[in-house]
């Protein structure tokens, strides 16, 4: 008998928006494609934006960076607001679902719930939440006005660490 498998959540706004609907999220917030990291392409993303999900490949370069980053933070510490919701991923292929839960949970004050699903909070801190890590990563303060651009700068660092890699995709949770 095969073990149970988690079906990955496709990084596609149509799929993620249907998932949001099934979770009871009112459609006044929707995921949209981020077509590129340049300012003219970011201007196509409806505002405000409260979350950006980056799909990226797990490569040897990323694993090396992840290990070094964890060791550095464990040694030096970091400030992460207690209101940041973080759930460690323990199931293979659940990164999309965990990322979506982080996006909702960290923006509950902005969401209109048709059904209350999660009890969570808000933050104006960019906290990267790779569920495979033991904790969220503080990438600094932001604001409603600059969140998308600030989050994209963090995404660009992922891409710069592995410049030969092309398998990146970003979607943004924005006001519909």
TrEMBL record:
Alphabetic keyword roster: Cytoplasm, Hydrolase, Membrane, Phosphoprotein, Protease, Thiol protease, Transmembrane, Transmembrane helix, Ubl conjugation pathway
Catalytic activity: Thiol-dependent hydrolysis of ester, thioester, amide, peptide and isopeptide bonds formed by the C-terminal Gly of ubiquitin (a 76-residue protein attached to proteins as an intracellular targeting signal)
Domain UCH catalytic: 5-176
Subcellular location: Cytoplasm
Enzyme class: hydrolase
InterPro entries listed in its UniProt record: Papain-like_cys_pep_sf, Peptidase_C12_UCH, Peptidase_C12_UCH_sf, UCH_AS
Molecular function GO labels: cysteine-type deubiquitinase activity
Quaternary structure annotation from Swiss-Prot or TrEMBL: Preferentially binds diubiquitin; the interaction does not hydrolyze diubiquitin but, in vitro, inhibits the hydrolyzing activity on other substrates.
Family, as annotated: Belongs to the peptidase C12 family.
The protein's name: Ubiquitin carboxyl-terminal hydrolase
Organism in which the protein naturally occurs: Hirundo rustica rustica
Lineage of origin: Eukaryota, Metazoa, Chordata, Craniata, Vertebrata
């Amino acid at each position: 008998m095969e073990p149970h498998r988690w079906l990955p959540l496709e990084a596609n706004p149509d799929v993620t928006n249907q998932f949001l609907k099934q979770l009871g999220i009112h459609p006044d917030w929707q995921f949209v494609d981020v077509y590129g990291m340049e300012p003219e392409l970011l201007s196509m993303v409806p505002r405000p934006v409260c979350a950006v999900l980056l799909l990226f490949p797990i490569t040897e370069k990323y694993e090396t960076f992840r290990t070094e980053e964890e060791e550095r933070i464990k040694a030096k510490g970091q400030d992460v607001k207690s209101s940041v919701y973080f759930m460690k991923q323990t199931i293979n292929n659940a990164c999309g679902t965990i990322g979506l839960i982080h996006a909702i949970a960290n923006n509950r004050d902005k969401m209109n719930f048709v059904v209350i699903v999660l009890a969570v909070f808000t933050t104006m801190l960019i906290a990267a939440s790779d569920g495979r890590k033991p904790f969220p990563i503080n990438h600094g303060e932001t604001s409603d006005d600059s969140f998308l651009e600030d989050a994209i700068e963090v995404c660009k660092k992922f891409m710069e660490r592995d410049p030969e890699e092309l398998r990146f995709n970003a979607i943004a949770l924005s006001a519909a």
